[in-house]
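My main concern about presentation is that the manuscript never shows what a single data entry looks like. In essence, backbone conformation is discretised, so a fold becomes a row of integers matching the chain in length. An entry of this sort, consisting of the sequence and the corresponding backbone structure tokens, reads as follows:
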Amino acid sequence: MKFRVDGTFHILHITDIQEVPEVSEDTLTLMRRAMDEAKPDLVVLTGDQLKGCSRAFRKKPEQVEKTIRRILEPVVSRGLPFAVTFGNHDEQSGLSNGEQMEIYRRIPGCVDWLNSRGQEILHGTEEGTFAVGIQNYEETQTVMAVYLMDTRGDAPGGGYQTMHPRQIFWYKGARDTFEQVHGRLIPGIVFQHIPLPEYYRLLKKTDRKTKGSIRTYRTHANEYYVLDTEKCQSGSFKEAVSIPDNNAREFESLREKGDIFAVFCGHDHRNSFVGNCGGMDLGYTPSCGFNEYGDGVNRAARELIFHEDNPAAYETRLLTYKDLVGEKPSRPFRDFAYSHRPATKEEALEKIKKYLLFTGLAVAGVQAVRSIRRKRK
């Protein structure tokens, strides 16, 4: 895998497709249009390709493969290479990440250590954790590394599992291997599903009365935040940043030698902001799939363009359904419902409490009015 003759390398980041066997045509249309617009050298999928909790997958492994092949049709039909890691919903389909990776490996274009085809690929400790070296156009040296990190799944007691220390150790080993082989640090970018806790450093703590403030949960329970526009270059903040309860110190490890210039994730479907924290960019790509909650026609894929002489000076833009396809999805009422669906269990519980409170007050009000009318009679 190498840079183009014009000195650029294009990645299309797609995340949170979260599809079922009856894949949404809107999802596929967005993927096709984004690929035709970006013409990527590599498509990176960062987890939750499957809506694993769907009953359509219950004890039906053949449906998992059917769905994976269907959502990858736009990639395969264009002959594009793709790299994949996993999210917290993929294993809920009934197949382990390892079993799913075996399916991906059978699909043309899968970039993986078993499908290296002479590429420089360093395999990690988990399926979905690996690094790919990107060479210059002349193929005389590696000038950039693309890391994919599996951020594991849901925690038994709620929330999300913490990244395992062995993955952090693996990253450091891979970074040092690149340095030893090539005689210098290789600048790199990390793609993963769940964001780092440090994403909160790109936000400003405020109160619930502030316009546009978002309530957060668990480690930041009952707090309110807005986007810090001094730290963020672009994008929106529309739902709580959902992170593991424990910090794996990934951020410090990635910054240790200064080789990693950016981290991009998904997971929080409506967020799309990109900002700089301690010299390293932290960014979101919003969800792509129309069979799960999302930001309406602002669902998107993200294009990233890197330059051979300085990969860290990359350019990026969102390729939204609205811009590529139009203002109206094929199933607007269904999409309206998904667009207003709570993002987390905590948010859903909060809305239920508000609904019950409102209902209780309404019932009490009606009863009070009836009581007054009886007294007047």
Observations:
- The longest strand covers residues 142-149.
- The CA atoms of residues 245 and 322 lie 35 Å apart.
- The first helix runs from residue 25 to 38.
- DSSP finds nine helices and 16 strands in the chain.
